[in-house]
Amino acid sequence: xxxxxxxxxxxxxxxxxxxxxxxxxxxxxxxxxxxxxxxxxxxxxxxxxxxxxxxxxxxxxxxxxxxxxxxxxxxxxxxxxxxxxxxxxxxxxxxxxxxxxxxxxxxxxxxxxxxxxxxxxxxxxxxxxxxxxxxxxxxxxxxxxxxxxxxxxxxxxxxxxxxxxxxxxxxxxxxxx
Length: 177
What we know:
This protein is an all-alpha fold. It has two domains: 12-57, no CATH class; 64-162. The chain is built from eight helices and no strands. Helix 5 runs parallel beside helix 8. The longest helix is centred in the middle third of the chain and has 22 residues, at 89-110. The protein is elongated and about 60 Å long.
């Protein structure tokens, strides 16, 4: 399979910063690990060097407000997951997915690591934190296969403990005016 990415030389730095701000680095990793087919003027080689520099700098750190919001959201998902009856599989599976995604977002951010979606979510998680990552993924699998939220709840609680504990009371979110 081959993919074609068309950018102007001037757009690349802005595009890379956008990718960095998303914390996923999708295109950055493509330039880092991809195989250029042609590069008559050296633009691709320079772009690959820039991508490697941005990857080495890591994703943009979360702000204090983003950390607090993430803890609050993860706490809400955890509470809902634990309170959902196993017979309500649609809700349970949806909650398990959202819980896993939010936990991955916070764990990778905690380690200053890149995150991902799809097949890259478990790969980036395990690369950032093999122990917590495995616990989260196995917990998610327990919900999917056995309708058992306990292993995922335990793994999420460990993530929350790492970040200052669950956040319920006192959380406020200010809306822009």
